[in-house]
Amino acid sequence: MLLLLSTSARADDWWGSDKGLHLGVSVGLGAAGYSVGALLSEGRVDRVAAGVLGAMTAGVLKELADGLGLGQPSLKDLTWDLIGSTAGALLGWVIDRFVVTPLLESFAPRFAG
Length: 113
Hints:
Elements: H1 2-9, H2 19-40, H3 44-70, H4 75-107
Helix pairs in contact: 2-3, 2-4, 3-4
């Protein structure tokens, strides 16, 4: 697999056409993972971790599939996945902290965390 990564790395540009897709999908998965984490934990750190880990799991599985012949594996793709996963989970945290929590506090104070 390392040979595959080094061989394909020459043709793998940091700003290649697929990098935006890796970033965008990872942002969405990171935010969705934060939301799932919110159902499972009251701690915001746990929720962020759920978002990042969930999205990165998808990215790693995709690169493993590429390594098995379904595409070209790329560490640069994983880097963009990590950036997107983190951004998405943090976006979830921002929405939770500055939108959802204030709304809950104003409409239903007993349910606000």
